[in-house]
């Protein structure tokens, strides 16, 4: 994990240790938003990992999605069947 990613992961780890037990499990996604954030920071670094985490947290609302949503690159089979298809639909050459 890069130094920036490590620093950015500290508030998430504090949340998981101090607040999450009091709030309870309410995340609409699997893995949870905090687990997703830590994995995104570890896998993609501070800047891109933070952007992925913010995008995920913004989708965690009553009108957003739900279900299995791994970090890009964590589940190649999921990426191949879900994320690549979305790009092909928008590509006029496909």
From TrEMBL:
Topology of this chain in the membrane: Peripheral membrane protein
Keyword Transport appears in the UniProt entry: no
Gene Ontology CC, one term: plasma membrane
UniProt-listed Pfam families: YidD
InterPro entries documented for this protein: Membr_insert_effic_factor_YidD
Localization per record: Cell membrane
Keywords: Cell membrane, Membrane
Family designation: Belongs to the UPF0161 family.
Function: Could be involved in insertion of integral membrane proteins into the membrane.
Name of the protein described by the UniProt record: Putative membrane protein insertion efficiency factor
């Amino acid at each position: 994990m890069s130094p920036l990613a490590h620093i950015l992961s500290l508030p998430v780890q504090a949340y998981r240790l101090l607040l999450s037990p009091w709030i309870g499990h309410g995340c609409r996604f699997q893995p949870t938003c905090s687990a997703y954030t830590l994995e995104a920071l570890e896998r993609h670094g501070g800047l891109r990992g933070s952007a992925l985490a913010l995008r995920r947290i913004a989708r965690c609302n009553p009108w957003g999605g739900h279900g299995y949503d791994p970090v890009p690159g964590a589940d190649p089979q999921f990426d191949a069947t879900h994320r690549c298809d979305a790009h092909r639909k928008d590509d006029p050459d496909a």
